Batch of 4 targets.
Target 1
Amino acid sequence: MTSTREQILHLLKTDGPMTVSDLAEKLDITEMAVRRHLNTLERDQMIGSRLLRQAMGRPTSQFYLTDKADEYFPKNYHTFALSLLEDIEETEGPEAVERLFERRKDRLTKEFQDAFRGKTWEEQVKTLAKLQDEKGYMVRLEKRSDGSYELTELNCPIAQVANRYQQACACEIGWFRNMLDADVDRTECKAKGGQHCVYVIKPKNN
């Protein structure tokens, strides 16, 4: 993070909508300084605001990222990929797109199987989190009180593809299940209106 504005964008991405006082506390700067940066980001259409009603006191503004700001974060897809999938669907039918993502899942399984082989399930989970983070998913991994893990992908590098072809989401969770000696459930999906993609991972004997 090279500037306060970048830090604000990162905080809104990782922590979700925040108020001026929330941001001031996180950044350890004055609320006046935060407002100055927010005004610039709002002018550049990187953030929006909405009123947050509170149990006591007056409503306060809560700030969130716009679609334009989403382009600031890591992406490794191109519009070419989406156009290509649309061409395949038009000429070969939706079944061809389905087969393509199934093939991708199998390829990923073979490509990374050595990285998971011989590891405990917890080591496998951490390996998966590291791989996804390196691919730009901005992964947050937390161990829960019951011993399971919650893996949150704060960014989706293939968001445009996944929004149009949710077979991409099925491919991802299928690959997770292939690689991990664990039960994997997706509890939130960005392509289906969630804020992030969230997975709960438990050992198979639970």
Target 2
Amino acid sequence: MRVAAFQRLAIFDAVDKVADVLARDLAWADEQGIDLALFPECYLQGHSYKAATARRRALSLDDPALNTLVGRCALEKTTAIIGLFERRGESIYNSAIVVRAGRIDGVYAKAHPQESGCTPGTDFPVWTLGDWRFGINICADLRYPYTSTRLARNGAGLICNPINLMLRPRKAEKWHQPGISGLQICAKHTRCWVIASDVIGSNDDGWFSYGSSAIVDPNGVVVAKAKPHSEDVLVFDLPDRQPERGFDQKAPMIAT
């Protein structure tokens, strides 16, 4: 299975502009035979830790603007994972949608949101793509090993991690390498492949992101890593079939 992690410039409050970038990137991915394309956390509207901003930006899954965007993703081969702020009634979630053949095929909501006003998700769905199964953890979810454990126990061989490490300059520098290390710990703990997609750039508050997109094998080896401070695309061919070993039930647990 061919996967791709897109490291892209963060764009704020411009869904139409993001939609154009997504359409371009996904058309390219389809031409390249990409089976699964991963985009960053809250990529669609731009990330924020402020409750009022997240609420203003949030879209429901039946919003016409979102459905128009999704309809542009009616690709022959590529399935996409796209991060967004999602509205469900009065609740706001930090979510990622799975888009397949021009429709939303499911959604995962971040179990451990750091964003003010966001409701924690409680479900850990797994999707099938060819001979593989994949699930989603969003950014800080990986600090809590039970989140990836749930996916592995449900049969996932690939864990997709949309992230948004746009932080104050000192914190951005502090968390760049630990962000990669967290992917490696997750891979070794679950015996799954792990793929992460991050943003680059800065916001109006002077925060910025190096870009910590990477692909890690089940032994914790980083097989692909994006260039820092640069838009980049990581493409990697996983084995044709998901390894039978999957999650090691006897592996020591950090948390459950």
Target 3
Amino acid sequence: MRPAPVVFCHHQHAGQFDLGKSEVCGLRGDPDQVYAVELAQRGFVTIAPDAIGFEDRNWADGQNVTWFEQSSRIVVGRTLLAACLQEISLALDYVATLPEADPDRVGFLGHSYGGRAAIWAPAWDRRIRSSVSNCGCVPYRESFARAVGFQAEFVVPGFASEHDIEDVIALADQCRYLVLATDDDRWSRGAVGIQDRLTQRGVGHARVEVRSGRHDFPCSARTTAYDFLTDTLQGAEIL
């Protein structure tokens, strides 16, 4: 049997630091977040570790530790983003050793926090050939609004003075992106502007789709994501 394509499934944030991998793996939490399970049922190999500060990686009884994790790195010239991206690469290193996994067909899927990671991860690790970001595309230029703000994991000193999300996407030219956004979600703000700027720059490996809705990942949107991963990772068997 041909090895199956791999998808890294990154969990959401939602301020629930006691919850991470268990949600996307369908063990507890929101049933609309079980994309690691649903992709596995479609014939993919999925991997879904806890991000730093979540679930088994939380050392403060479910309290927010991510700003400590960030500040303790910033003072020595490092960032939490670099640590999180490195851990994604380590997870892909591991899954590449599994005989049932095809290391040449690697994808990424995430909602909210996971959706933000889905934009950054392919620029860090060029093994990622296809990535879907759901409700996590808000650019830095929109994040100065107090209703949005900056997530600790994506604070990079000086980055927003000259760059934004379009630069990250453009850099990962080995990856096909699908950016899913909604019209009533603060974490989807600026989605149309992202598409406009990508088009102006002639970036053809990403597309943005805006649907009616809030900060959610309903079955219809998940199906769109799964179909995109199937098409772009070439030959994933749908059961």
Target 4
Amino acid sequence: MTGAGGESDVVVREARPADADAVAAFTRDTWGERHDDYIPRVFPDWAGSDDPDCGTFVATLPPDAVDISGLDGREPGDTHVAGDGAGAADAEPEAVVGCIQAVSLSEWEAWGQGIRVDPAARGHGVGTALSAAALDWARDRGAAVCRNMVFSWNVMGLGQSRAVGFEPETEFRFAEPEPDPDAIDDSGVDLEPLVDPDPNAAWAFWSDSDARDRLRGLALDPDEPWACSQLTRERLATAAAEDRLIAVAGPRSVAGFAVRTRVTEREADGETTRTATYGVAAWRDLDAAGALYDAVAADAAAADADAARVLIPETVEHVSDTGANRVPVAAEPDFVMSADLTGGS
């Protein structure tokens, strides 16, 4: 595959495990002081995977097309040599200057993630070529839509997504309740968490909720971290069967629910932090929000989590309901964009 728009010197190919060092070199400082980039940590697994539902690609340029000297401590000639194992010595040299992964989430939904371009290679059409490869991969597997997630402050990333065919879909923010085993007992609200929540009742609530409208029906995917896909009745039933569905109700009906998607562990500075992530939350009003956050706090504590994150719609109502209940929220929202793949390439 070559780059679009006449950028024929850009070649996009499937990633190899031997590409990991080159990718790590240009992604180690992607976000500066904001936070660490996860790509150096996960790319070796991406490149080494034989999962047919994942496609990982790198973009390359001839070594003389980019000058990487002085970037991130690299020296001239620090380029990845094409090929690994037998025959590598006869391979043409190439500079690995970008990466991306596409993932199938369902029969009709795909997700694009991890697009990175070496600063030394900007202006060569690398991002466009990578995006085209990911969208082609998704289209070939029958996907009708491919979505991605972009930090709201990443104006360059937002512009790149629009340039290659992604359109705005929704935005969300993470609420961050503190795990607390006594949260429910201290709530003082006339709403109770349900011991055995009915997924059909939760689905009925979701179907008629502002949260569903604002999120366009999306929630965090149960299998792929940091990806969003359509929340379905079947997913709620699975969550209920696995004790991951949390709901609160008044005397007559469900007033709110949340779904625990996963609990992850992250080690930093010799300490391990467990985070419970809730793929979506929806509620009826201010009091229901408070009762639901209390139920989530208790559930996170029961899961032995040190922290919790809850995806909520980025609206004045949802964020202010959260703040009024003294629950912290992330400083900035995230944007989800989507590309329609039904019209061909």
